[in-house]
Amino acid sequence: AAREVKMSAPKTIPKDAQVMIQILKDMGITEYEPRVINQMLEFTYRYVTTIIEDAKTYASHANKSNVDADDIRLAIQCRMDQSFTSPPPRDFLLEVARQKNQTPLPLIKPYTGPRLPPDRYCLTAPNYRLKSIQKKVSSSANRISVPRLSVGAVTSRPTTPTLGTPSVQSVTTKVGTPVSLTGQRFTVQIPPPSQTTTTKPTTPSTPAVSNVLINPSLIGSKNILITTNMVSQNSGGESLKRKHEDDDDYDAL
Amino acid sequence: MAAVQGGMSDADIETDIKTEPSTDGFGNNNANDGRVLSASPGSGSSTGSNKQTAAVTPEDQQTLLAVLQFLKKNKLIESVEILRREAGLPENSLDPKATESAGAGSGGAAGIVDLEGGDVSSLLSRVTGSSSAGAQAPTKAVAEDQPDVRVVLSAYSQQGDPTLYEVYYSDLKKFIETVLDCHRAELSQVFYPLFVHMYLELVYNNHESEAKAFFEKFSGDQECYYEEDLRVLSGLTKKEHMRGNETLLDFRTSKFVLRISRDSYQLLKRHLQERQNNQIWNIIQEHLYIDIFDGMPRSKSQIDAMSGSLAGEAKREANKTKVYYGLLKEPEIELPLDDEDEEAENEEGKPKKKKPKKDSMGSKSKKQDPNAPSQNRIPLPELKDSDKLDKIMYMKEATKRIRLGSDNLPSVCFYTFLNAYQGLTAVDFTDDSSLIAGGFADSTVRVWSVTPKKLRKVKSAADLNLIDKESDDVLERIMDEKTASESKIMYGHSGPVYGISFSPDRNYLLSSSEDGTVRLWSLLTFTCLVAYKGHNYPVWDTQFSPYGYYFVSGGHDRVARLWATDHYQPLRIFSGHLADITCTRFHPNSNYVATGSSDRTIRVWDVLSGNCVRIFTGHKGPIHSLAFSPNGKFLASGATDGRVLLWDIGHGLMMGELKGHTDTIYSLRFSRDGEILASGSMDNTVRLWDVMKAFDDLETDDFTAATGHIHLQDNSQELLLGTYTTKSTPVIHLHFTRRNLLLAAGAFNP
After folding, report:
1. Is the separation of the CB atoms in A134 and A149 below 8 Å?
2. Could you tell me if B464 and B485 are in contact, meaning their C-beta atoms sit under 8 angstroms apart?
3. DSSP character at residue A122
4. Three-class SS string for B359-380?
5. What is the rounded (10 degree) CA torsion for B534, B537, B540, B543?
6. What does the pLDDT read at residue B180?
7. Which residues of chain B have pLDDT under 70?
8. Which spans does this entry mark as compositional bias, Basic and acidic residues (chain B) (predicted)?
9. Hey, what's the torsion of the CAs at B177, B180, B185, B188, to 10 degrees?
């Protein structure tokens, strides 16, 4: 709550604070919390020292022994343009407005779902990426590691509801066709949901699938089509598409 | 021009004045220029042969002299000679000492001589950018030689002797005090702009002490409602102080508009032109725009009602554009013929089976309302199925609406934000009053559910794929029960949130903040979708259009921007205000936007063209709230002066004034049918006003429309229907539910 400042006896308030109180009074501000004076004094001190230091720099640059008014003026001007910018002048705004207002209003396409700017200008993309911790596919080609590839990728991307096929793709493209997988057929058991750390439980679907058949001829191509119900459901997710693009962008491991 | 020379009685000069008439055609602003050519003869001695360089216009003359001065300073003597020869300028038109002494020697009335000497050195001062007061000054002028061509072309030129400004002003004061009563009020309007411009000119030309003396002497005479401005001016004593202050710079370069009757104007003109020192006349012509009308002079109260803005009043042409204030036709929606609608149909008196055609918004006639814009004047989004369902709900609720009136006041339900510690900066309700959102000084946006139904987030895409999309309650199934809570907090802004607005379809929330961005939040996932960057300065207000898709924002950079949710850049920029825009509102037909500003004016902008179609002046303080009436014809505005003003948009006139509040009015809202206006203020009260009566009493005849004279009745007391005080909570938002229950919101402030 705003309280009136009591004017204590001069001996308890330093001179600077008295001046500040007077300034506030002159500008017509009658109600303010007592800490306002401290903040104003702090600002004043910081501003003045910044300006004077800048002016000293300019004076020494001009090989002057003393700082004079011109240096101060220059320091103030530079600081104004840097920290205390002011809005553009009116004629500039009028000109910009005139140009902008000439273009007719764009027509609205019907039935487009949420009307948002292009993805680049939205804040809807994930802004982080977790590093995957799998070993290389070729090193441990046992039947556990393959499902971990797919499931592990899921864990590393909790926000995307996919089974992580894109990340598998990125791993495999780097590594190349995993030698150990070619020519082999794997029967893979996807671990029960309790072992996974997926944030979105996909309980309804896992019991339906207990075996995954990875067709080796598909390994190494862009998409490993793990023929499970999960994938078919998730590949419908729109974010999957976006994930591909992002992975192409941030393809660094 | 003839009047200028007519005032000079010195015989020497008369001869050369005869040659002056050829320069008369240059218009009023070149008063000084006219004197330029006559000034050289004032230097007596050798310049009787002042070759009038008729080929060179006065402006060029000034520029030439400026260039010459510059060359001289840089010791480019030969160039000086060549230029002087080619331009045909007399030898000692540049010699300050000779002209100055000659000027002093020519005697005559002090004012005139000073004018003469002042003219010569004023020419030089324009060239040199330094003062020219009295005899000593020209020597100083040479010493502090600052040749600057920019000064020549700058907005302010030295209008004579600064020490005499006080004399000029007092003379004018005396004159105006002696005119007839009926003219005095009108002519007194001149005082304030003249005072400010003269003061700013003194400051701009570095006459600090004269400026201070001038200010002290005359600032007390000004009208009380200019007190804030004068306080700002009192802190402005150096030219450097003016640099960052955009509002003052705009004020300097724009013309202050005065509306004066022809008789009063003639009086003033005659007086000023017959005086010897026409500085005031020159200033008036340069900085004031006098909108002359034929008719009776206005009384003080009439003038006081309309004045107060930073740029004077509005020119009559500014309010002449046709404004389509009618409402858009509601689309035909068939009400489902089930039992629930029995009431609705029976109320309309139609047989039960018949499909009702339209909703209750007055679109009974099939004909196009001549005052309504066409449906496709601006592109609007089409109605989705969910929108149609909303509309049906709306119409059902509308039938259950309570009819308000002076005998039937609404009940008020107050939502108090506790523990906000003065941090609540913005509030909004959805149209169906199911959600309330608050913007806070800690940069968070919080949404609460007003109904017992909790807020839920939508499920993730994985889960969404699993639900049965064909089921009837699919809209329930998409919600994730685990995220149900009473309120949701949304983080994203990096500064206090000053404006907040729900979209009509309840899917989005907009918030504008001190960090310069406007953010769009999804109310399904409660995350931020887009941050619209454009204003680089605090954005004080934002609002969605009544049909969604468009939104408007206004802020510290003195422009309002119209955006669409799917464009990352604004579609329209509404520029014209002199100071920050504090409030932005859409018209119910979404074709117009009203903006209220710290320059104490309200402007109405056309969305289609971006032009300003109305300027309303009359408030004496920054405007903080605006409300359009539901029928689109009227606008209500509230400001820091505690008054609510009512405006007729079609005619562009002030229609009513509601006095009663004692502090800033931060919220205004019309009831759903437009009979009652509710206003909430910092004085912890909500007041209800009978606007039906105010609008009925309006008599707009041709004279009023043509001249803008208004006769306001002082009937605020009659129109005040009720005052409801809260314990200690300023009211910052008001909202009428669809059934005309009044909801209010504020933060408890012990």
Report:
1. yes
2. no
3. B
4. CCCCCCCCCCCCCCCCCCCCCC
5. 0
6. 86
7. 1-60, 62-63, 89-160, 276-277, 334-367, 697-710
8. 358-369
9. -40
CB A21 within 8 A of CB A5: yes
Q: How far is the first Cα of chain B from the last one, in angstroms, to the nearest whole number?
A: 65
pLDDT at B610: 93
Q: Cα–Cα distances in Å, from B275 out to B174, B193, B279?
A: 13, 20, 10
pTM, to two decimals: 0.70
Pick among B249, B377, B566, B613 to test the A interface (most A CBs inside 10 A) = B566
Is the confidence at residue A160, as pLDDT, over 90? Answer: no
Chain B, nearest residue to A86 by Cα: B244
Phi-psi region of A223 (alpha: psi -120 to 50; beta: other; left: phi over 0): beta
- Contact list in A for residue B465 (CB cut-off 8 A) is 161, 233-234, 236-237
Q: What residue has token string 């007390």?
A: B220
Query: In A, which residues are within 8 Å of B534 by CB distance?
Result: none
All residues of chain B having their beta carbon less than 8 Å from the beta carbon of residue A234 are 461-462, 465
Task: Mark yes or no for CB contact A110/B382 under 8 Å.
Answer: yes
Distance in Å, alpha carbon of B400 to nearest chain A alpha carbon: 33
CB B534 within 8 A of CB B561: yes
Residues with Cβ < 8 Å from B469, sequence gap 6 or more?
Answer: none
List Cβ neighbours of B58 (8 Å cut-off, separation of 6 or more): B23, B26, B30, B33, B34, B36, B37
Q: Hunting for tokens 């509308």 — which residue is that?
A: B398
**Side-by-side strand order, sheet with B487-490:** B424-429, B435-440, B445-449, B487-490
Distance from CA of A12 to the nearest CA of B (A): 28
Residue B524 and residue B410: Cα distance in Å, rounded? 33
Residues whose CB falls within 8 Å of the CB of residue B375, separated by 6 or more in sequence, listed in order? B328, B329
The whole-chain average pLDDT of chain B stands at: 78
Q: What is the predicted pLDDT for the residue at A110?
A: 85
CA distances from B356 to A95, B341, B396 (A): 50, 10, 12
Sheet holding B643-648, edge to edge: B623-628, B634-639, B643-648, B653-659
For residue B743, give the 3-state DSSP assignment: strand
- Degrees to nearest 5, angle at CA B394 with B393 and B395: 95
- Cβ neighbors of B354 (< 8 A, separation 6 or more) are B345
Task: Calculate how close chain B gets to A180, using CA atoms only, in Å.
Answer: 32
- pLDDT on residue B49: 38
Identity of residue B345 = E
What residues contact A74, with CB distance under 8 A and at least 6 apart? A55, A58
The Cα–Cα gap between B239 and B243 comes to 7
Distance CA B359, CA A206 (A): 51
Q: Check residue B88 and report its DSSP letter.
A: T
Alpha-carbon span B576 to B612, nearest angstrom: 8
Q: Distances from the Cα of B661 to the Cαs of B671, B686, B690, in angstroms? A: 19, 9, 15
Q: The tokens of B702 are what? A: 């041709």
CB atoms within 10 A of CB B88: 13
The Cα B614–Cα B426 span in angstroms is: 27
Checking if the pLDDT of A230 tops 90, the result is no
Which residue shows structure tokens 């064909």? B470
